[in-house]
Design brief:
homodimer; alpha/beta; TIM Barrel; Lyase, Ornithine Decarboxylase, Chain A, domain 1; 9-stranded mixed β-sheet; 11 helices; 18 strands; 28% helix
Amino acid sequence: MTSLLDLPTPSLLLDLDVLKRNLARMAEAVARHPGVVLRPHMKTAKNAQVADLAAQGKGPITVSTLAEARYFADHGFRDQIYAVGIVPAKLDAVAALNAAGNAVKVITDDLDAARAIAAHPGPLEVLIEVDVGEGRAGVLHDGEELLAIAAALGPRLVGVLSHSGHSYAGRSIAAMAEIAELERSRVVAAAEKLRAAGHALRIVSAGASPTAMYAGRLHGVTEMRAGVYMMGDLLQAQLGVHPLDDVAVTVLASVIGRYPQRQAVLLDAGALALSKDRSTEAAPKDWKFGRVLDLDGRPTLGEAMVVRVHQEHGEVRGEGLPLDRLPVGARVRVAPNHVCLTAAAHAQYHVLENGRLVAIWERANHW
Amino acid sequence: MTSLLDLPTPSLLLDLDVLKRNLARMAEAVARHPGVVLRPHMKTAKNAQVADLAAQGKGPITVSTLAEARYFADHGFRDQIYAVGIVPAKLDAVAALNAAGNAVKVITDDLDAARAIAAHPGPLEVLIEVDVGEGRAGVLHDGEELLAIAAALGPRLVGVLSHSGHSYAGRSIAAMAEIAELERSRVVAAAEKLRAAGHALRIVSAGASPTAMYAGRLHGVTEMRAGVYMMGDLLQAQLGVHPLDDVAVTVLASVIGRYPQRQAVLLDAGALALSKDRSTEAAPKDWKFGRVLDLDGRPTLGEAMVVRVHQEHGEVRGEGLPLDRLPVGARVRVAPNHVCLTAAAHAQYHVLENGRLVAIWERANHW
């Protein structure tokens, strides 16, 4: 394989050693809870080789698009939850996957959609989405809507599902654990309410990376979903999901301009290659549009960060930026604020193992 | 062709009628300046059919990546400026295009890069980038660096180039015209300084959509570059580049959840399908993550806008949001804050003419 000096820039790098550490850390965290399965969310990685490591033996996975559902089904991952509210127009595609031997489960929080699902020839299985406090999607765990939707779904109902994306705003391990416990109690209460009404549920699905990592107990939950932990990013590091140095995905970039008068350099990685995500804006350490590391992925460039982006330009500044080491053509790596968004801008990963390029892995982008 | 009801969601739509109006408006604006050529920037559209309309007869274009340079060369657009500072590692690729009969010009503002360009076997032609006030890239128009770089480039130097991206912060036509005149005076002064030093320059290239539209005079400038005007977006509309209703690119999305208790709906277009660009944040009207229109692209949904995004979820709220018209499965269109970023998330355009789907056009994404 070529070296990092031969790759075009910008390019997306995936450090396999870091990925494996992140996977092991989460596997261990979930293993603390007997009977709870990890159902990794592939919306971040969108890649089958990563899924083979994260869901070993073609285990259960979560997906966020029909494109992912099809791609992972093609790669042998039959047990999927498509964890974005389903619309009737997408049922044919899901049922076709299921008719071909897959078990792609859909979710809903809407009575009309539940009726459409019930009326569809299938095969289809459904989870009801429960709002456990995020206020994004889902029905209340103790409301009448939950029962009405379940009644409409009938035997196609197989479980309940919740997401605690608001845990991303947590600022301590205790705060994550508290959010995890609130989520657990509410999604389990929803399941109990449905079981009391005569519905047989086999799946009680919860999770997000911080809560999967720090939940104190998960009694009643059958599985945890998490995705961003695999790659990690500058927000997840500050949430305690992984150490700051364990960001597995970085963007390889070249210096395209050097400006001593303002102590800045420009990179050929801008708004498209990094995304405009500003997830660390409210975090203890604001990394602007990304932390700039040296070519080996080490933090030897002072507090270098991408402070401003244009479509194909990223402006780097920061305390201690060593301009003498950054002539035009020099290469650096940018660790992302929010890896899901950054990775989605790229068609493939250049995979590193022990610092050497060993493979190119594709991504199932788009819809 | 299928109808808008049959397309998968999210999908990117391009309204050809609006595109043509936007192209005509800019062509007319630039035609006010005899001897000034429009060199459309294809970084927004990244599509050859659009280039055929914007640069008729395979006219001169601007590109922002090597991927675009190759793609447009393959489609017959030989005269290109690759308007992002070049690094030595990319010179082989550019020279290969030129050896095949193209004229892809590169830009630099760096003495070391200029020496590398001069030492390369070529064929290569170069413009020096001049900073006219944006403070992003470029040398000063009246500094010694300009002359040193020119001397290093020797006969490969064919012009100077400036960009006034700071015109995006302008808030009146008078302000745009003032920025345009400052840019003109500085880039022309740079050209004159180089000519006085014995360099023959045939290109004095300036521009950005707002300044191309509103420049009062362009004496000494040979060409204007602009790109986002073709498609338009919610920021450009507020800069007066086009009417608010002339946004040619929208994202088709489905309602995936309806929440009367908080007067909101969720769409299946979120951070990936719309981007996280917040360009209108500081504009007179902040459209958050995009303006929500009905399926015909008309503003009949009150002040509906996407107020919050997650990876595949967009939450819509706004004064007068008609929830009764937005059940799960209903389809809407989202006009983007910043079309360059939104379009880049999609592999292709679904092209509409007189409201009917007539074609699918690809995009030359990535690098």
